[in-house]
Amino acid sequence: MFGLLCQGFQINSMPLILRRPILKSLLDAGVRIFRYTPGFVHAKVYVSDSQQAVVGTINTDYRSLYQNFEDGVYLYKNLEVIKIEQDFEKTQALSEEVTLESLSKNAYGSSSGWLSLFL
């Protein structure tokens, strides 16, 4: 399974509006997306095949990958990878799954008006 856990709480709605087309593309491709709503998630964690993981400060954008000095730890066939994966699953269980239907609603509860341009 390929899953993505993203921030559920936003101070303002603009980041959610701007990321909506990307989330829609991922949903269309079969990626399961979860919004962590109990609190704030700022972690950057990547797990693959239960054998490798990256944990660090690295955002997946141009600035973080090429301009800023970001750190990450790569783990391969390490017991910590399993613990990281288990933590993801626990956090996922506390999260709300994003669907195409829930994504079609804008920050104000409908998909009408100028905000629908971003859908």
Keywords:
three-stranded mixed beta sheet; alpha+beta; single chain; 119 residues; globular; 6 strands; 24% strand
Mean of all residue-level pLDDT scores: 81
What is Rg? 16 Å
Principal-axis shape: globular
Question: How much strand?
Answer: 15-25%
- Helical content (DSSP H or I, runs of 4+): 25-40%
Q: How would a crystallographer describe the biggest sheet?
A: 3 strands, mixed
Poorly predicted tracts of residues: 107-119
Figure out the total of helices.
4
**SS-based structural class?**
alpha+beta
Span between termini: 26 Å
Order of helices and strands: EHEEEHEHEH
**Strand order of the biggest β-sheet:** 1-2-6
Counted beta strands: 6
What do you see in this structure?
This protein is α+β, with helices and mostly antiparallel strands and 119 residues long. Helices cover 34% and strands 24% of the residues. It has four helices and six strands. The strands form two sheets. The chain has a three-stranded mixed β-sheet, sandwiched between helices. It has a three-stranded antiparallel β-sheet with strand order 3-4-5, with helices on one face. A hairpin with a 3-residue loop joins β3 and β4. The chain starts with a strand and ends in a 16-residue tail after the last helix.
Compile the SSE list and pairings.
Layout: E1 3-7, H1 14-28, E2 32-36, E3 44-48, E4 52-56, H2 62-67, E5 72-76, H3 79-93, E6 96-98, H4 100-103
Parallel strand pairs: 1-2
Antiparallel strand pairs: 2-6, 3-4, 4-5
